[in-house]
Amino acid sequence: MKKGYVQIYTGNGKGKTTASLGLALRAAGAGFKVFIAQFLKQGDYSEIKALAKFKEQITVEQYGLGKFVKGKPSPEDIEAGKKGYERLMEILKKGEHDLVIAEEANVAVMCNLFSEEDLIAIIDSKPEQTELVITGRGATQSVIDKADLVTEMHEIKHYYKQGVMARIGIEK
Predict the structure, then answer these.
(1) 59 burial via Cβ count (<10 Å: 0-12, 13-18, 19+)
(2) Coil/strand/helix, residue 126
(3) Which residues lie across from 7 on neighbouring strands?
(4) Confidence band (pLDDT; 50, 70, 90) for 26?
(5) CATH architecture of 6-162
């Protein structure tokens, strides 16, 4: 790519991570090198198993502690978020990836794992040729303003409200 853009997938609807992972697969199919930083997840999710089949092109690193961050994050949550932020900045500085995905980075900001200014620094550190995707509900106006493409996933109806929990292969 000669020029990479900044994409944001936000909103309260389902599909933000799914869209970014679809883009990762498309990029891998084109021979691109992809880096995915997952800020809130930890564990062997179905997408991790699938992406492992593309380990030559797609690298996934997780910086969550495997539990949902509610209210005030623990010092361990903050340390994990900081580690992920520093690693993502290092990856961008190297400029070796065609596509970089900061999965749930907007939520990491909402949970105070790192600041809105830190997320803007990630955007500003993006090499010219790198495509950067930031996912997660709650994108701030400043982050939206820095982006080239913003998609808001809007929930109209969700079976979760009828008691259906996340299902393997569909939501996890």
Answers:
(1) middle
(2) coil
(3) 133, 149
(4) very high
(5) 3-Layer(aba) Sandwich (3.40)
